[in-house]
Amino acid sequence: MTPGPGVRRTPLPRGFLASGVNCGVRRYRPDIGILISEVPAVVAGVFTLNECKAAPVRYCQQLLPADNILAILTNSGQANAATGAEGIEKNMMMVSAAAKSLKCEASQVLVASTGVIGVQLDIEKILPSMSELVERANDSTESFATAILTTDLVPKTVTAEVELSMGVVRITGISKGSGMIHPNMATMLGYILTDAKLTKVYAADLIKRTTDVSFNMISVDGDSSTNDCCFLMANGASKIEIKTPEDQEKFESAVIEISIFLAKSIAADGEGATKLIEVEIKGSDNLLLAKKAARGVTLSPLIKTAIHGEDSNWGRILARLGAEQVPSEQLDKLTLRLQDVLLFENGQPVVFNKSDVKALLKSAQVKIEIDLKSGPFTATAWGCDLSRKYVEINTEYS
Questions:
Q1: What is the pLDDT of residue 187?
Q2: Beta-strand runs (E) in 167-275
Q3: Which of 219, 244, 268 is the last residue of a domain?
Q4: Residue 179: pLDDT band by 50, 70, 90 thresholds?
């Protein structure tokens, strides 16, 4: 897969265009972007389970899945959440303006928003930008990926080509997210684009299964956003269908790999983060509990601060597993490794060199491995450390 977070030039699949411009909500960088399909596309999405849903989330949920979508519009800086009837009206004004510039129906334009909650869209600045946004559309993700950022330090893009029985298809992923990250559906904002030909039913099933093992397995701070959404958009421009079980396996593996890559990129770019934390729980007899426990470890402020301080305090990990209701009989026989160093086994601590582990914890990536020795299931979650910078960013955000 190429090229990854921070690398701007990522090509789009056939039949897709993208752009981002500055409309004046932000001072400098692009703050509104659009993804355009040159032909009507199949789109499915997953959305936040937070009951305080933003206007764009409610709008898109009414339309998806669909097979006639031509664009996804995204603005940053203003979340259009908790904005009442005025927020719904301004969301539709934005959609209608984009549809007019694209010469299509409003129902063919989806929208996502990100930014400060409780702030009305600065519609007087946004609407005049629509013509320029459409006119500047090109075959690269660069300006769009920048336009959707909030506190992110880097754009997050990735692309892959997959050879199927009928030919080669491209899949490109774009996402944003840094704070208020504890998805209960998908990522903060995520877009998976492909020129493969998919059905609505298949796309809806695939995006749900994909987010369950990728974006739903990350956490930065435990707060689920009002605006989380992730879209799978397939325009069929390649005219290539998924014909065989082998095609399906290859295609789905690539979509999942791209989604995990983006999910890990979000966790690594957590506000104030200096380390990406990966937690693998294997040997479980209950997949749902394994997922819950893995996310619980990434969420714990005690564990996150210990990792930041390069402290091998494994007791915090064991305590969190117990708090997540991992049965005591499994806790008594598990093995726990930190950076591949055995710390706990068969219900008791193992002697290890703390200085050696401290040195290993200086790495930008930290892995916690837990084997419950009780079943066939494995779950992996990703998070980040918790630093003083996180507090600074979030006291200054609005």
A1: 45
A2: 167-176, 189-194, 229-234
A3: 268
A4: low
Give me the catalytic one of 74, 141, 187, 210: 187
Interatomic CA distance for residues 279 and 250, integer angstroms: 26
Residues 90 and 187 in one domain: yes
Nearest to 354 by CA among 391, 384, 311: 311
Residue positions counted in the chain: 398
Closest CA to 170 of 160, 178, 180: 160
Q: Are 60 and 193 within one domain?
A: yes
44 and 94 share one domain? yes
Query: What 8-state DSSP symbol labels residue 214?
Result: T
Mean pLDDT score of the chain: 91
Domain shared by 96 and 220, yes or no? yes
Of the residues 214, 244, 268, the one at which a domain ends: 268
Asked about 187 being catalytic, the answer comes back as: yes
Q: What is the pLDDT of residues 120-159, one digit of tens each?
A: 999 999 999 999 999 999 999 999 999 998 777 788 999 9
Number of domains in the chain: 2
The pLDDT assigned to 181 comes to 52
198: enclosing H helix or E strand: none
233 and 283 fall within a common domain: no
Range of the domain at 36: 2-268
DSSP conformational letter for 241: B
| Full DSSP string of 43-109 | EEEEE---SS--HHHHHHHHH-SEEEEEEEEEEEEE---S-HHHHHHHHHHHHHHHHHHHTS-GGGE
- Is the separation of the CB atoms in 190 and 174 below 8 Å? yes
Tabulate helix, strand, coil % of the chain (nearest 5): 35, 30, 35
